[in-house]
Amino acid sequence: MFAFSAFDQIPEQLSKGPKELFVVDGVTHIAPYDVPKYVDQAIPKMAEFFAVL
Known about the structure:
Elements: H1 6-14, H2 36-51
């Protein structure tokens, strides 16, 4: 379960483009940068997202 604060909503409110929350289970804040099993999950999703911009 996640607890989101009012600050978490600011980027969504400011963005006029497409938005999506993508959660990688079990990951910490830093792990997506250099832990292969998390990077491998995140990169395809990021490529898909940025392809439509």
